[in-house]
Amino acid sequence: MNQETLPTRAAKALLGAIAIVLLAGPALASSAMADDLADFYKGKQMKMIIRSGPGGGYDQYARMLAKHIGKHIPGNPSVLPVNMPGGGGITAANHVAFIAPKDGTILTIASQGLPLDQALGLNPSFKADLRTFNWIGNMSDSNQVLVTWHTSPTKTLDDAFRRETVIGVTGAGSISTMIPAAMNTVIGTRFRIIAGYPDGPDVNLAMERGEVEGRGTNPYASYVAMTPNYVRDHLINMLVQVGSKKDPAIPTVPLLSDYAKTDEQRQILDFFSKAVSVGRPIATSPDVPKERVTALRRAFDATLKDPEFIADAKKQNAEISPMSGEELQQLIDDMVGAPPAVLAKVKAAIQAKKGLEMKAGAKESKE
């Protein structure tokens, strides 16, 4: 029987030890990274920058996430909600881009309309580049609906082609304003759009009082969560929904894109449908180390599957339809980098501002 020599056995033992180290290397590196992340976040208080005042849909979703995400981030930091209204979300976005720490301790819920704003260069005060943000995930892509109060003679979108219908909105640069203004220009609706209400609940109150007949586009999920009696008691007429496909909960409400009669109209309306898909987007600052961005993305994913979070969302009637940070990053990059010819058509439709006027004595919008 052949027997191995002592040097041969030693060489094999050495090779075996090297193999074990090589196999264990990635796991050890991953463990070390997790430890580093935990050491960084442990004992820290993160901030959730909320682009609107208290009480609206953005505030609701941001506070829900802030309440639960900390336990899924290595080191289990606390997360403090901070309301920062102004300019339809521009104040908060500029703060996150240029002032807030760039170390992964900041989260923000951004305005749904900001990618559209940047793509079209609509507002000189908006200095941030959303492509440099690190997008963590999207909490909801609920379709937007344009509504009138049940007492309004305008019950359907067809009625809005025949008669002037007064609707309230918040900021002149918000997506809730852009969409009906573009509808007036592109497909010929006759909305009289009164901008300058401080926030969404103020528009609702004006609608209830009869100061306006309806409200510019707002997520259907927001009505279900914040004013469920509007939906339950049929207090609002849903004229049209904006999104890539119909919301299964409101199958009889027509899609805006269905009203396109030409290729040019379809390009414009489809761009708005893509903008609506941004929904309730969560980001952290630019220039955050990649491993912390990844940790925050995976914490977001875990939070939206967390039974306690799901129960909280159900209790608040908050619709949850998550999109990963990677998908959201691509969506925003695609919007901002859309073909110039398409952007020019959309911009022309918005800049016409057909039917838009400012509310008397209005201050800068929070919503």
Walk me through what this model shows.
It is elongated and about 100 Å long. By secondary structure, the protein is an alpha/beta fold. It has helices at 6-41, 57-69, 90-98, 114-120, 157-162, 175-186, 200-209, 220-226, 228-232, 263-276, 290-303, 307-315, 325-336, 340-351, and strands at 45-50, 78-83, 106-109, 134-138, 144-149, 165-168, 191-195, 214-219, 236-242, 281-284, 323-324, 356-358. The chain has a six-stranded mixed β-sheet. Helices cover 45% and strands 16% of the residues. β1 (45-50), α2 (57-69) and β2 (78-83) form a beta-alpha-beta unit. α6 crosses α14 (340-351) and α10 crosses α14. It has two domains: 41-141 and 278-336, D-Maltodextrin-Binding Protein, domain 2, CATH 3.40.190.150; 144-276 and 350-358, 3-Layer(aba) Sandwich (D-Maltodextrin-Binding Protein, domain 2). It has 14 helices and twelve strands.
Q: Strands, helices and their partners?
A:
Blueprint: H1 6-41, E1 45-50, H2 57-69, E2 78-83, H3 90-98, E3 106-109, H4 114-120, E4 134-138, E5 144-149, H5 157-162, E6 165-168, H6 175-186, E7 191-195, H7 200-209, E8 214-219, H8 220-226, H9 228-232, E9 236-242, H10 263-276, E10 281-284, H11 290-303, H12 307-315, E11 323-324, H13 325-336, H14 340-351, E12 356-358
Helix pairs in contact: 6-14, 10-14
